[in-house]
RNA sequence: GGCCUGGUAGCCAAGUGGCUAAGGCGAGAGUCUGCAAAACUCUUAUCGUGGGUUCGAUUCCCACCCAGGCCU
């Protein structure tokens, strides 16, 4: 029997939680305490020109004294994978995973503690569980032609190519059906058979920042008002002027898509803000649904407890 | 005291003499591997109370209670 040498995995701290839970301040405090650098796991803060609506840290690009590379810095803490994609460009899970892993390794090589911080559950899972994502890039032509079919037709097709996938993908979820078909057609293998996990890349400590639902809701409301005070309307107007369309991934996120009706003169600004609050609440709920599945997450409600966990984890 | 209008889920609200009483909000549960702050699924009412008419009433009639409005 062959005994594999037990390789010590590098340690990665993950801080997650629903939107508006206070992850930003929380993680910065921890980063300061543990000499950490933050890698954002947030599918919206990646975009440039989208600062207020994504609640991006108000940092700035600086040249790193040592490496000479440009880094986004806030409160003296480097924030990676933030503010680097044009809102008109596409970005994907696979790209995120690759970039995030690279950053973790870099940070470790500098002798600092990598901290993956964010609320995009799938992004976090991709890194933590090393999801092996089918290497099938989006195929626009194929997607377009599939788009024309009805959901029923797509389901029928998928039943032939990958009956197992039919069980987990909702028959009404066109986007998912198309992706599954795309993978099947491109690889000639089933989509469901390619959803695997690799061996762990890092030893991870996942800390969840828990906030009671009521409190979270009032924080969400407050935050929406603050965003408006900081000029969210102007930020969105600027994006619209630059011809970023409402159906772009960047523009279809909470904080932006709610303004579509306003700019089409269909609803008032007041109602827009209400929509923003509502959709943010719903989003937070969905995030919690996602996080609940992962029993490895250790939930805390204050920095001291989190620090304790990290201390134990690092020893 | 009289007249009018209305009483449908936690809230707003449609509707019909008879298939399982729209929809929205709120709430809850869930799915999730290259758009994930996205996309999608499910749950949440015997129609104010008591009678009557009818094969059958949430819908028609009567009484009562409640709310709002008007009148004296």
UniProtKB/TrEMBL annotation:
Region (Interaction with substrate tRNA): 42-45
Source organism, top-level taxon: Bacteria
Residues annotated as binding ATP: 17-24
Catalytic class of the enzyme: transferase
Keywords: ATP-binding, Magnesium, Nucleotide-binding, Transferase, tRNA processing
InterPro entries named in the record: Dimethylallyltransferase (IPR039657), IPT (IPR018022), P-loop_NTPase (IPR027417)
GO MF annotation list: ATP binding; tRNA dimethylallyltransferase activity
EC number: 2.5.1.75
Family designation: Belongs to the IPP transferase family.
UniProt-recorded name of the protein: tRNA dimethylallyltransferase
């Amino acid at each position: 029997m062959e005994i594999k040498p037990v390789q010590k995995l590098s340690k990665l701290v993950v801080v997650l939680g629903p939107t508006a839970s206070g992850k930003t301040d929380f993680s910065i405090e921890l980063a300061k305490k543990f000499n950490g650098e933050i890698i954002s796991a947030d599918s919206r803060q990646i975009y440039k020109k989208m600062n207020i609506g994504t609640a991006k840290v108000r940092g700035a690009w600086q040249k790193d004294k040592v490496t000479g590379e440009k880094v986004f810095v806030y409160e003296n803490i480097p924030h990676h994978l933030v503010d680097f994609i044009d809102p008109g460009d596409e970005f994907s899970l696979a790209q995120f995973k690759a970039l995030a892993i690279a950053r973790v390794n870099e940070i470790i090589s500098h002798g600092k503690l990598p901290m993956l911080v964010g609320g995009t559950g799938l992004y976090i899972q991709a890194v933590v569980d090393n999801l092996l994502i089918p290497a099938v890039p989006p195929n626009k032509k194929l997607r377009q032609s599939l788009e024309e079919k009805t959901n029923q037709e797509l389901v029928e097709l998928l039943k032939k190519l990958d009956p197992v996938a039919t069980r987990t993908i909702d028959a009404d979820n066109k986007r998912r059906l198309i992706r599954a078909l795309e993978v099947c057609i491109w690889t000639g293998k089933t989509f469901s058979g390619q959803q695997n996990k690799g061996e762990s890349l890092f030893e991870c400590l996942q800390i969840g920042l828990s906030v009671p639902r009521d409190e979270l809701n009032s924080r969400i409301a407050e935050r929406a008002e603050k965003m408006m005070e900081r000029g969210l309307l102007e930020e969105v107007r600027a994006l619209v002027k630059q011809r970023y369309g409402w159906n772009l991934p960047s523009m279809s996120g909470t904080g932006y898509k709610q303004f579509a009706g306003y700019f089409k003169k269909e609803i008032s600004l007041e109602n827009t803000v209400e929509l923003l609050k509502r959709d943010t609440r719903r989003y937070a709920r969905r995030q919690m649904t996602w996080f609940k599945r992962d029993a490895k997450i250790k939930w805390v409600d204050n920095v001291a407890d989190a620090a304790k966990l990290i201390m134990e984890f690092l020893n």
